[in-house]
Amino acid sequence: EKLKIKTPSIHQKTGNLSGGNQQKVVLSKWIFSEPDILILDEPTRGIDVGAKYEIYTIINQLALDGKGILVISSELPEILGICDRVYVMNEGRITGEVSKEEATQERIMKYMTKSRV
What we know:
Layout: H1 19-32, E1 37-41, H2 49-64, E2 68-72, H3 76-82, E3 85-90, E4 93-99, H4 105-112
Parallel strand pairs: 1-2
Antiparallel strand pairs: 3-4
Helix pairs in contact: 1-2
């Protein structure tokens, strides 16, 4: 109920749920273990807009609760919307660090295209 997982019953197999609800089930399992840090790799890939919003809400609440959240995403609007700090990588190296206040698509793209020195 807390994560708003839509299912006909608690006995429903996760594989039979929508993609967004499957993501929320996976996230709930990690939250249940009470980690101090969560690493989320493409947490909203392939899910509908409503489920994305719900997952963003969960991520923001975890951060407010003092959890460390590392989000790995290829979606710039997602990064700009939920991250306090952005590290950009290219060819396996960090090419830039941007605070939330300085983060723009243009600045991030500049670092994304920066080659190794």
